[in-house]
Amino acid sequence: MPADAPIRQPSERLYQTVARRIARLIEVNAKNTDWRMPSERELAEELEVSRPVVREAVIALEMRGIVEVKGRTGITVLPVRGPISAFDKINADSGAGPFELLDARMAVESSAAAMAAERATSYDLATLEDCMAQMEYETNAQLDHEKGDRDFHMTIARMTGNAIILSIIEALWVQRDESLMWKKLHEHIHAPSVRPLWIGDHHAVLTALRMRNPEAAYKAMTRHIQNVSKELMEADERGRRARATALSAER
User: Fold this and answer.
1) Are 74 and 38 in contact (CB under 8 A)?
2) Backbone angles phi, psi at 69, to 5 degrees
């Protein structure tokens, strides 16, 4: 990475910093015909960040027409009008990246589940059972905005009896719903394949809460959010491969 690569700006999100550095890397090598765009794995190693952060940065670049990702072909640099350095204004972006949100949810909601296990009432458990019934009733097309799923997590937040925790979790879900990057990742989720897994995860959380077992509740919630994160990465990769196959068929 060049010594003059952009550094992280105050209040800038990590994926935004990484996106600016990748944009700068593209600009520096624009006239080098022998240069190739590194893979996500190579970028993660070079920039010393996780692959989910690189994935968020690449999505941000895609949404600005700077790169395109074509399945196995990897990251392709698109013709750009004007200097890429204008991308430095990325810190005016739409908010947290999807994996950043999931990390925050895992930190807060896992602890909330542990607290809820110690304070669960029969009414709370009955409410969670109703949420589960709603989740099983909802159609695959409603996976992106499932009321049952959201109500399940917000019920656990309320079970903590802590208004601050409740407000934090609610704010994280609002950010998720408003995130354009989340929607872009989520559009490749294959609902019929993930629904049984995610419903099973919720059953595990509910079982731990019924047992009033904080440690089991913590682990079950952590496992669920890890599964969501893993599926988002894999679904995005499947979507990229599908686009590449479709383009090849058109030719």
Assistant:
1) no
2) -110, 125
| pLDDT band at 140; cut points 50, 70, 90 | low
Instruction: At 169, list the tokens.
Output: 């979790």
Place of tokens 């790169």: 67
Q: Could you tell me how many helices (H) and strands (E) the chain has, helices first?
A: 10, 2
Angstrom distance (rounded) from CA 67 to CA 61: 6
What is the C-alpha separation between 16 and 7, in angstroms, rounded? 11
For tokens 């991308």, the residue is 87
What DSSP line would sit under 18-31, residue for residue? HHHHHHHHHHHTTT
Is the whole-model pTM more than 0.70?
yes
Mean of pLDDT values over 88-109 = 79
**Residue 212 pLDDT:** 97
* Spatial separation of the C-alpha atoms in residues 37 and 84, rounded to whole Å: 15
Instruction: Please give the single-letter amino acid code of residue 188.
Output: H
β-bridge pairing 75-77 and 67-69: antiparallel
Give the C-alpha separation, 17 to 197, whole Å.
Answer: 34
Query: pLDDT tens, 10-66?
Result: 457 889 889 989 988 988 888 888 888 898 899 999 999 999 999 899 888 888 888
Number of residues assigned to the chain: 251
Reduced to 3 states (helix: H, G, I; strand: E, B; else coil), residue 211 is: coil
Burial 146-180 (b: 16+ CB within 10 A, else e): bebbbbbbebbbbbbebeebbebbeebbebbeebe
